[in-house]
Write a structure and sequence with these properties.
Elements lengths: L1 E5 L4 H7 L5 E5 L18 E5 L2 H7 L5 H10 L14 H13 L7 E3 L4 H10 L2 E5 L6 H15 L6 E4 L5 H6 L4 E4 L4 H4 L2 E5 L5 E5 L16 H6 L1 H25 L6
Parallel strand pairs: 1-2, 1-7, 2-3, 4-5, 5-6, 6-7
Antiparallel strand pairs: 8-9
Length: about 260
């Protein structure tokens, strides 16, 4: 399984992430009015480019689909989501078809609540599909949604599935995602908390007011004073824990017979 770190544009954050992984998720929404090169931190980056449709929906702004296509071609970005339309499954499908017709291979997104006929269409026509609209949903809703999705997906396996915002250990153990992304690695600086892997291999969150749990396989110095006072330190501990979780999930699915090329 691949874990993409949904990156801020903070050089400090990205530099810290790149100490442990080269996988970054950016959104075109943040690039569309700039001359910034997504590969400025290195040509060997494994970039997942999201269109930023959620930001568009939230802000009332817009994205020009042809400009997005030109951007993907200019930087030769191989892993990118098509421009979806929040709340409009047909509009999302139309955009994916249009981008494909322009010679750009992108990842269509099927969202929670959409008719399953759209997922079926993508499964018949794409080899890499994203599942979206899951952030903020309850565990019960997520499990019901994913059970139904993967009951269809299994007939098309080994189609690759990306889970937007689906860095949930229980779900990663239950469903064979090819890739997921996460933003919560940054809770160390934002909220005075830290995500770590505990002695039972569970990813848990610890407040800076409580002593951190030690895990022998998580080889990073855990200085309690730094943990309670240094947000950058907490962020780095979280990043390392997320990378350890990525490795663990990959190993477990490998033992189950799911090995991605």
């Amino acid at each position: 399984m691949k874990l993409y770190f949904a990156a801020s544009h903070s050089t400090k954050d990205i530099t810290t992430i790149l100490k442990y992984t080269n996988r970054l998720l950016f959104t075109y929404f943040d690039f569309q009015n700039t001359d910034s090169n997504p590969y400025k931190y290195g040509n060997d980056l494994d970039i997942f480019m999201d269109s930023g449709a959620f930001s568009v929906w939230k802000s009332g702004a817009s994205i020009n689909i042809d400009s997005y296509i030109e951007f993907l071609k200019r930087y030769q970005i191989k892993t990118a989501a098509s421009l979806d339309v929040v709340g409009d499954a047909q509009g999302t499908l139309n955009n994916w078809d249009y981008m494909t017709s322009k010679g750009v291979i992108t990842i269509p997104t099927y969202h929670v609540g959409e008719p399953f006929s759209f997922l079926d269409y993508y499964l018949k026509n794409a080899d890499y599909i994203a599942l979206g609209g899951m952030v903020g949903k309850s565990q019960v809703i997520l499990e019901d949604f994913l059970n139904k999705c993967f009951s269809l997906i299994k007939s098309y396996f080994p189609v690759k599935i990306h889970g937007f915002g689906c860095f949930n250990f229980k779900l990663l153990m239950a469903y064979p995602f090819y890739s997921v992304d996460a933003t919560t690695w940054n809770v160390g600086r934002k909220y005075g908390e830290c995500n770590i892997m505990d002695s039972n291999f569970n990813l848990v969150r610890r407040s800076s007011s409580r002593k951190i749990v030690h895990h022998s396989d998580f080889k990073i110095d855990r200085d309690f004073v730094k943990f309670t006072t240094d947000g950058n330190y907490r962020t780095e501990v979280s990043i390392k824990a997320y990378c350890e979780t990525e490795k663990l999930v990959t190993e477990i699915w490998s033992k189950r017979g799911i090995v991605w090329a």
